[in-house]
Amino acid sequence: MKLEFTLWCEPPKHTAQGSSTILKNFKTGKFFIGKKSNSNAIQTKNELTWLLMPHRPQKPLNGALKCEIDIYYSWRKSETKKNIQKGIMPVIVKPDLDNWNKQFSDVLTRLAFWKDDAQVYDLHLRKFYSNKPRIEVKIEEFSE
Questions:
Q1: Which residues span the domain enclosing 101?
Q2: What is the CATH number of the domain that holds 48?
Q3: Number of structural domains in the chain
Q4: Can you tell me the distance from the alpha carbon of 17 to that of 92, in angstroms, rounded to the nearest whole number?
Q5: By three-state DSSP, how is residue 133 classified?
Q6: What is the pLDDT of residues 30-62, one digit of tens each?
Q7: ∠ CA 122-128-133 to the nearest 5 degrees?
């Protein structure tokens, strides 16, 4: 089975790791690493959930999975017209791809695209600047 779809949106720039902070337990006075309840990461997860919901498979994908995700951000305002005319250009600023993918994979798992993100044996992630912001997703079950 193969899933292929495009999410027409401005890809999120906030990750779950960005919402972690050092907090203090007022009863014991000890510090710990926790998440802010009003963080942008929670809002981002909710938005991704709503965007991905219509693309859910009827039942979770089984076995080993190959996953390709291309992320296209809008051009920065500071970008030169020369670069914009090229069409697309790699993004080399935050968010980091590995952190971005953790949050995206968690949402896919929560929506039952697969049973567990450990099923992904082959993962290709790329991020670009483009005139048309979007997220392109391809998920394919391994076949011999």
A1: 2-141
A2: 3.30.1330.70
A3: 1
A4: 18
A5: coil
A6: 876 666 655 666 788 889 999 999 999 999 999
A7: 105
Q: CA 27 → CA 24, 30, 34, 36, distances in Å? A: 9, 8, 16, 18
Spatial separation of the C-alpha atoms in residues 47 and 135, rounded to whole Å: 13
- Residue 69: other Cβ atoms inside 10 A: 21
User: How far is CA 1 from its chain centroid?
Assistant: 22
Residue 139 host element (H or E): strand 134-141
Nearest of 95, 76, 71 to residue 6 by alpha carbon: 71
**Per the confidence metrics, is the pTM higher than 0.85?**
no
CB atoms within 10 A of CB 137: 20
> Cis (ω within 30 of 0) for the bond into 12?
no
CB 102 within 8 A of CB 41: no
Q: How far apart are CA 110 and CA 118, in angstroms?
A: 13
Separation between Cα atoms, residue 94 and residue 106, nearest integer Å? 19
